[in-house]
Specification:
By secondary structure, the chain is of the alpha+beta class. The chain is built from six helices and six strands; from the N terminus they run E-E-E-H-E-H-H-E-H-H-H-E.
Length: 173
């Protein structure tokens, strides 16, 4: 099991504004660092590149560096052990694996960003009106997310699940 300190930092975005594609459809453990190389989150995935895209969309200002260890055969126990070892090696649990875990691992909930007017309209609407309003709010929040990604220098194609928008959620498709 490789030590987190023994792995090299990889820029989260390459000069073309893309996440590292060498991990596309590969199984592995990854550690995400902010601009100052402070550990923010440790996770594992069956498709590391897709997971890195999700995290970038959810937390664009905290994704500047990444360390990755791939494995040839999926083994949840081994992945979890490596993730826990890296967290222990860090000396404390990163906020992304503790208090802020939902911000890193769950779809963006646009409902939390409703204005007072939108909240009132939502409360006064029937089911169809609520779905329409949630899609509208999700589109507004989507524009904010895309602007933050552009500011961060990301140039990757982003497509959110249209069905999830009906629930006010932004999840990559």
């Amino acid at each position: 099991m490789p030590s987190l300190n023994d792995l090299n930092y990889i820029p989260y975005l390459n000069p073309d504004g893309q996440v590292p594609e060498q991990f596309d459809r590969t199984v592995g453990v990854y550690a995400i660092f902010d601009q100052d190389k402070v550990l923010q989150y440790v996770g594992y995935s069956r498709d590391v590149t897709f997971s890195l895209k999700q995290h970038l969309v959810r937390q664009p200002q905290k994704c500047h560096w990444v360390k990755v260890q791939t494995i040839d055969r999926p083994n949840r126990t081994m992945l979890e052990e490596m993730r826990q070892a890296w967290i222990a090696e860090n000396g404390h649990i990163p906020l992304g694996n503790e208090m802020d875990e939902a911000l890193w691992s769950q779809a963006i909930d646009a409902k939390t960003q409703m204005t007072d007017g939108e909240r009132s309209a939502y409360d006064a609407s029937d089911d169809l009106g609520r779905i329409k309003l949630l899609k509208q709010v999700a589109r507004r929040v989507e524009q904010d997310v895309l602007a933050a990604l552009e500011e961060r220098g990301a140039k990757l194609p982003i497509r959110f699940d249209p069905k999830a928008k009906e629930e006010g959620l932004l999840s990559l498709k």
